[in-house]
Amino acid sequence: MAWRCHSSYLFLGFIVLISVSSSSQLQSSQAWTLLSLQRLLNFPLVLTSWEINTDFCGSEPNPSVTVVCYEESITQLHINGNENASTLPRSFSIDSFFTTLTRLPTLKVLSLTSLGLRGSIPAKISRLASLEIVNMSSNLLVGVIPGGISRLKNLQTLILDHNLIGGRLPEWIGSFPLMEVLSLRNNTFNGPLPVSVSNLASLRVLVLSFNKFSESLPDLSGLVNLQVLDLESNYFGPQFPSLSNKIVKLLMRNNNFTGGIPSELSSYYLLQQVDISSNKFVGPFIPSLLSLASIKHINIAGNRFTGILSPNTSCNDELEDVDLSYNLLTGSLPACLSSKSKHRIVLYSGNCLTNKAQIQHPISFCLNQALAVDLSPRNLKKASVHKAIVAITVVGSIVVALIVAFVSFYFLKRTNARRVMKRPPRRVIEHASNGYPSKFLADARYISQTIKLGALGIPSYRAFSLEELEAATNNFDTSSFMGKGSLGQMYRGQLKDGSLIAIRCLKLKKCHTSQNFNRHIELISKLRHRHLVSALGHCFEYYLEDSSVSMLFLIFEYVSNGTLRSNISGQKLSWTQRIASAIGVAKGIQFLHAGIMPGLFANDLKITNVLLDQDLVTKICSYNIPVLAEIKDKVIAKTSPAFTDHIDRTMHEEKIDIYDFGVILLEIISGRPVTSRSDAKLMKHQLQESITADGSARRRSVVDPVVRKTCCGESLKTVIEICIRCLSEEAAERPSVEDVLWNLHFATQVQDGWRGDSNSSEDSPLSSHTPLSPHTPALRISEG
Ligand SMILES: *[C@@H]1O[C@H](CO)[C@@H](O)[C@H](O)[C@H]1NC(C)=O
Ligand SMILES: *[C@@H]1O[C@H](CO)[C@@H](O)[C@H](O)[C@H]1NC(C)=O
Ligand SMILES: *[C@@H]1O[C@H](CO)[C@@H](O)[C@H](O)[C@H]1NC(C)=O
Ligand SMILES: *[C@@H]1O[C@H](CO)[C@@H](O)[C@H](O)[C@H]1NC(C)=O
Ligand SMILES: *[C@@H]1O[C@H](CO)[C@@H](O)[C@H](O)[C@H]1NC(C)=O
């Protein structure tokens, strides 16, 4: 019996046992009330034992009927009918029934289930002011939840499962300070879940399954006691609910959720069961779900999750069932799932995995389907805004021959679209992911970087809708406009959750095959690192009517503390902070080169493309994404910027960034803007002389006075030397990024040591100390 679980009830029951033995009889009026109820319910089978002489308080409780008394009054009444019971007579009146019931004002627990009660719950239920637990499941109750219930301030549990109650859930549902269990399964509720639900601080169980609820849930992250959230079979969505990480059971099957699953999910250490099947989720599956601390049941079937599964992924030993069926997963099943040793149910058919024991699609299916498109009809107002954006973008568009995979969609959707509206509809590609052959998977760096993503403190990569971007930028209002570069406009925006974003709007001019489209997005989604302005998501958009790709929006985090140049010229950075900035840039380069596959080289690094955040962490904000490069190449052909005349483009492509890094270092050291390559050559020459020359006068003319005040000579010398090497004309002579990092760390270390040493003079001469080789273990400073 479920009520036994309730600890306050157990306590009550204990008191009752004592009182039953000492005091004797129930007030006769209350006994009569019970007999009236029996008559009103048309003498159901379960109540055949009730007679005029029955000792109600003394009778043995059983699952069907239980009466509990305290000091001659009834505190609990359970009448649980048989599901096969004959229906109540036509003359049954729920109003009379409750009128009778209110003669038991001391009731704390009321359970009336499977009795065929029909009609709507009368408002007079409020007269049962002591009610704590109410269970009226499996009746034929209709109408709405009466406002009278809002006066039951002691209510802890309200269960109305399997009825026909509906309408919108009233806002006052959030006004029960003690509410622990609210269960409305299998009714006809619709509309959104009221925001007030987030005030139910004691809530442990929230069951809303099998209704017609819609829209996204309010922020429930404040409900730290919430253990069970059951939303199955509603129209909730599109946003993934925001929850506390103490959730134990999360059931979201068969709703209208889209987008990616948030990376927070992998911090739900108490989560035992997650069912997000039969939604429209997209984006990469998070393999770390399989190894969550408490996880037993996982079901993600029937979505469009992408990503490459690795045999090395580990699983929680306690996993009992995993259903990955009907997604777009590639790679091979984690060994822990494919081994037969455990009594574990693993379903994975309908993906593109290499394990063929359950039916799989060919890999091309998953790659193409990852591009599955959605027709999103737009109203005219938005369309004109959109045209305005197009109008201010560079040059006209090239008609794109549709990718084979899209052709069927195209005709289908086009016919639909014609029927619905005259103006050109547009489809928004919700996402596209996947596509790296498994050889990349073998690269451990790739995997380790993917795993690290969670630690960045930024939301997981996802597809954005254009509506969202329009809302964030106030319809791309000019007040949101940040600037226009060779690669399109930048807009600043603010998402609903308050976070700031930067949006790069790109006009696509080239035909993309499905394969290279996939790759671009896969790559962009990996551009997340502490020292990059990280990609948060994207949004694709194009017209159906003439098949031309119109726009690609790339959404990045917004970094607000200015460029590295403005921070240097504003004299805001000490020498230590300048080295730290340089280390940040170098780590960013290291990630671009080796942290993602394939690496990004020739990123055209400039000090103005290095931003600082609130904590003075440097972030590279412009890098050589292939999609951008395709657009950019045309532009460069016309105007050749200062630093693009590098030699040996193909032979030493990673060294191009090292040269640019050297230019940034020049500015860090000198505090003066370096605006041309000849400028850079001249300053490099001066630096070289300053190191060899004895006189400090020449050094002064080169080094930023701010730096001279705050740095130790040895630290400065180390940085100058590495700077000179970075600026070598011969690409092969430039140091590796690891070498650069080692030297910069060394410069920090000697600087730290120097600061502790009060004897050192402010203007200490550049010492002749040479740093040890990068391979000297004693001095290596660990990365990260
Ligand atoms: C409510 O009543 C139904 C039917 O008797 C029962 O199955 C269910 O467990 C009860 N719920 C609770 C939480 O007591
Ligand atoms: C209800 O009736 C069905 C078929 O007559 C029977 O199988 C089932 O056991 C009955 N249920 C109960 C609770 O008596
Ligand atoms: C919903 O309730 C009806 C009647 O109360 C029952 O027949 C049906 O099986 C229930 N559906 C679910 C999904 O629980
Ligand atoms: C499902 O979500 C889409 C947008 O994501 C929305 O347009 C649609 O109305 C939703 N469906 C229902 C039944 O709420
Ligand atoms: C998986 O583990 C094996 C042995 O531990 C190793 O050889 C292999 O490279 C790993 N594969 C991946 C993709 O990490």
UniProtKB/TrEMBL annotation:
Chain residue ranges for the region called Disordered: 753-784
Signal peptide residue numbers: 1-23
Recorded superkingdom: Eukaryota
Membrane-spanning residues: 388-412
Alphabetical list of Gene3D superfamilies matching this protein: Phosphorylase Kinase, domain 1, Ribonuclease Inhibitor, Transferase(Phosphotransferase) domain 1
The keyword Kinase is assigned to this record: yes
GO cellular component, one term: membrane
SUPFAM superfamilies (UniProt xref): L domain-like (SSF52058), Protein kinase-like (PK-like) (SSF56112)
Membrane topology recorded in Swiss-Prot or TrEMBL: Single-pass type I membrane protein
InterPro entries named among the record's database cross-references: Kinase-like_dom_sf, Leu-rich_rpt, LRR_dom_sf, LRR_Rcpt-Like_S/T_Kinase, Prot_kinase_dom
Low complexity composition-biased segments: 758-777
Keywords for the protein's UniProt record, in alphabetical order: Glycoprotein, Kinase, Leucine-rich repeat, Membrane, Receptor, Repeat, Signal, Transferase, Transmembrane, Transmembrane helix
GO molecular function, one term: ATP binding
Domain Protein kinase: 476-746
Compartments, as annotated in UniProt: Membrane
Name of the protein in question: Inactive leucine-rich repeat receptor-like protein kinase
